[in-house]
Write a structure and sequence with these properties.
single chain; 538 residues; alpha+beta; 3-stranded antiparallel sheet; 13 helices; extended
């Protein structure tokens, strides 16, 4: 070690505010440069004499970590780790140590449209910078280069360790697709945008299909109201009123004070209850449920017809393809027309897909067609195949598909008895599934996996389907017992086993004994608890 020079010592004392204690402070430096990011110790050995002449009789050691080298790193937002940078977000250079603001401003981003300088917040007046950012939006689908100033150093005078990082080359992805109306509180309806054209509401589109057209609004034609103002005083008052009511809620008394006409135009306000369900004496009103112009003198009503263009692309049945549909319904799950359309266009034809389409649409005629063909999909063990097996083919029925068919038809039957499985098919599949869980049937697959993994998944089935399928008590009890006792008893081994497929979870602590699936009340606990209850979806 060596003592630092007087100027450096004075700077250090002033920086750490130790001028008054300077006689008790040592300022030392290493004789050699230390490697970055390494551990070091300062040893204060015994025998060191202080200013009073008293020697230190205890060795002391002080641990330090040498700081990281001065480096730069790059970051940007991406759709995934291998994708280019999204042009809607800024790109950023981060430094492991601060640099001067003047050096940070010398970085340059070069692209197909020229160069760009770093962006700094207007309130950032710091003389140092720990990062450099180039603001979005950036040119899409473009190659970009970031250049660093020559001889870049941090504020401590260290040169950049990874100088070969620059010039940094990166790229941007295409702009993501977009279809949006104005997101602000104020929008413009272009009533006379084009000669001989109806009024239009602008929609921003980006990277959407070429034949995207407005299919229509469920409400048919739409109406807007217009109030023409000429006096400057009226204009200022309405601008202030629109700003005051640009929100979500306001008390009834405040609405009555600012614009009582909104409460007396025949529109029933929506009252917002308190958190406990009660209504306050001066309740909050959802001001979006009110109208500022309804029944006000001088207000005109304009009708906006909604229709697709005459040259809109059409399907084979003449319906307009694509489009934007706006609708309102009291509950999210009511109707679900999009889900029904998806099922109607579902093109696949294996047994699982035929079943899912028929039951998803609750189409009894289509389901009867599936039932007519279903016996040809079962192998001689009673397990269902995705496609009809050949006569000479060895049994290849899927226990997972069989369990799915039993479970999904059970759920559908609760809605409509027409979707029940016939007893002969249900019993045949249930017997085959029980034999599989019992180990009497084995399936070998091309992928190497333990047959017991499939038994774990199948063991989920009895809790949902066996009781509702009304199997005899012997079969139901055997499947239930096998669903528990066939799994390892050791908690760690059992957990790994159940998670190996990612489709089941086992917990001995949460489920001390398996339920009786025969439809009767649970029996008294045995002397030892059942090994496992598995919970999950089939």
């Amino acid at each position: 070690m060596r003592a630092v020079d007087d100027a450096t010592r004075a700077t250090l004392l002033r920086h750490f505010r130790l001028e008054k204690k300077s006689d008790r402070v040592l300022t030392l430096a290493c004789q050699q440069t230390l490697p970055s990011a390494t551990k070091m110790q300062l040893v204060y050995d015994a025998g060191v004499t202080g200013p009073g002449g008293i020697a230190n009789d205890i060795e002391k050691r002080f641990d330090f970590t040498v700081r990281e080298p001065f480096t730069a790193s790059f970051s940007c937002e991406r759709e995934n780790a291998k994708a280019p940078c999204t042009p809607l977000r800024a790109v950023r250079l981060n430094f492991s140590a601060p640099v001067s603001r003047a050096d940070a401003q010398k970085f340059v981003l070069r692209g197909p449209k020229g160069t760009a300088s770093p962006h700094f917040d207007a309130s950032d007046k710091d003389a140092e910078a720990s990062a450099v950012e180039f603001a979005a939006p950036l040119p899409e689908h473009a190659d970009l280069t970031i250049e660093a100033p020559a001889n870049l150093k941090d504020v401590s005078g260290r040169t950049l360790a990874n100088t070969d990082f620059f010039p940094l080359k990166t790229a941007t992805a295409p702009m993501p697709s977009l279809a949006k109306f104005s997101s602000g509180s104020f929008g413009i309806i272009e009533r006379f945008a084009e000669p001989d054209m109806p009024a239009m509401l602008p929609v921003t589109l980006r990277h959407v299909e070429a034949d995207l057209h407005v299919q229509g609004l469920d409400s048919g034609t739409s109406q807007i109201t217009k109030l023409k103002l000429d006096a400057d005083t009226d204009i200022r008052q309405w601008i202030r009123a629109v700003d005051q009511f640009d929100g979500i809620a306001m008390s009834r008394s405040m609405i009555a004070q600012r614009m009582p006409e909104m409460l007396n135009n025949g529109i029933t306000p929506v009252v917002i209850p308190n958190s406990d369900g009660t209504v306050a004496k001066d309740p909050q009103i959802d001001i979006r449920s009110l109208s500022m112009l309804a029944k006000r003198p001088g207000v005109e009503t304009l009708t906006l017809p909604v229709a697709p263009p005459a040259d809109a692309s059409k399907s084979t049945d003449g319906a307009v393809r694509g489009g934007i549909a706006v609708s309102l319904q009291p509950k999210l799950a009511d109707g679900l027309p999009g889900v029904r359309r998806w099922f109607e266009r579902y093109p696949y034809s294996c047994l699982e897909q035929q079943t899912s389409r028929a039951l998803g649409l609750m189409d009894a005629a289509q389901w009867q067609g599936v039932l007519t063909k279903m016996p040809s999909y079962l192998d001689r063990n009673g397990l269902a195949n995705y496609f009809p097996p050949a006569d000479d083919e060895r049994p290849t029925g899927s226990p997972a598909l069989t369990a799915y068919l039993l479970a999904v038809t059970d759920e559908a039957t609760k809605q409509d008895r027409r979707f029940a499985l016939p007893d002969n098919l249900r019993n045949q599949m249930a017997a085959g599934l029980a034999n599989f869980v019992d180990g009497k049937i084995e399936r070998k697959f091309w992928a190497p996996r333990n047959d017991l993994n499939f038994r774990s998944v199948v063991a989920l089935w009895p809790r949902r389907a066996a009781a509702h399928a009304r199997l005899d008590r012997h079969r139901a009890r055997s499947v239930a017992d096998l669903g528990g006792t066939r799994l390892p008893r050791d908690p760690v081994t059992r957990r790994r086993h159940c998670e190996s497929r990612g489709e089941a979870r086992a917990s001995r602590a949460d489920h001390p004994r398996a339920p009786d699936i025969s439809g009767h009340a649970p029996r008294a606990s045995r002397s030892r608890p059942s090994a496992t209850t598995i919970s999950g979806g089939s």
